[in-house]
User: Fold this.
Amino acid sequence: MDYQEILDNAQSIQEIYRLVKKIAKEYFGYLQAGLLVGLSDLGLYNKGFLGAYYSLNANTIVLNRKALVKVEHSNPELYLPFLFHLMLHEYIHSLGYMDESEVRALAYDISEKYFGEDHLTTRLAKDLNSFLPYLTLEKGDSMPEDIDVEYISGIDIDETRYIM
Assistant:
């Protein structure tokens, strides 16, 4: 299967999620069913940002909408690899890996195995900080007062048998 072609031709967050899930199942031998994925404005800052997080209690991956929009507008060829990297990283957390160093190492290993050393996804996993100019604002942003999550429908339709 040509995972790079699937990533390059993805048209939605749902397609990226399905790719992450397929690769993770092949790599780990198991998956996390019933995950929710949502978008929220988590802000951008001049020294860094929160790209996404996994909520263990809610079994939800929340993506930073502002970071995704910034990348999509400032460096469009980085958008799909960045989205894949965020979702893979948080998906690994959903599988029970909570140590950040371990999750980063796993994300890098998976990216290198499935996309090769020179692919943007692997380069992001290796050194996300080198991409910060595309991900942060010059003057920074204030933290939103309320973090509303917009849930994305059709994310885990293969493993979920209920209507949301």
